[in-house]
Specification:
By secondary structure, the protein is an alpha+beta fold. It has a domain at about 1-90: Arc Repressor Mutant, subunit A (Orthogonal Bundle). About 35% of the residues lie in helices and about 20% in strands. It contains four helices and six strands. It has a three-stranded antiparallel β-sheet with strand order 1-3-2. Strands 5-4-6 form a three-stranded mixed β-sheet, with no helix packed on it. A hairpin with a 5-residue loop joins β4 and β5 (about 105-110). α3 (about 45-55) packs across α4 (about 60-70). The longest helix has 17 residues, at about 1-20. The chain is globular, with a radius of gyration of 17 Å.
Length: about 140
């Protein structure tokens, strides 16, 4: 584990610097949890629980603030699945999601499986930022 421990910190340090964020102890610790194991979707509560399990002293409010700062800096993408419920996605590329209403799981929808045929006319003086599609499914039985 010796080698694995240092590398994620080097990676997250570089990510934070590139994004223009000061590498505080909390940002480094939460960033290491978020980005160490490939792409994932987390809620603030999930990340807070993970932090506590890893003996990281951090409040839920700090986790929320950090996730929002990372999102504003382009390191994460917020996916709102329902009012007051957001997931934070480490995959910031253009893609859509399937949300499992029964168990709260969020998964990526592979881009080639869906086609957006036409966009509506946008209000004057605006430009498209991105299109977020969340397809909600529930167990059929």
């Amino acid at each position: 584990m010796g080698m694995m421990r240092n590398r994620p910190f080097t990676d997250i340090l570089a990510r934070l610097r590139t994004a223009g964020l000061r590498p505080t102890r909390q940002r480094l610790a939460l960033g290491k949890l978020l980005f160490a194991d490939g792409n994932r979707h987390v809620t603030a509560e999930m990340l807070h629980e993970e932090a506590v399990d890893n003996k990281i002293q951090v409040s839920l409010a700090t986790v929320y603030n950090t996730l929002n700062q990372f999102t504003d800096a382009g390191l994460l993408r917020e996916v709102v699945v329902e009012s007051g419920r957001s997931y934070f996605d480490t995959n910031t590329s253009e893609h859509h999601h399937i949300f499992h209403v029964d168990n709260g799981a969020l998964e990526d929808l592979s881009d080639d499986s869906m086609r957006l045929v036409e966009l509506p006319v946008l209000p004057e003086g605006t430009q498209l930022e991105r299109v977020d599609i969340v397809i909600r499914v529930r167990n059929s039985n």
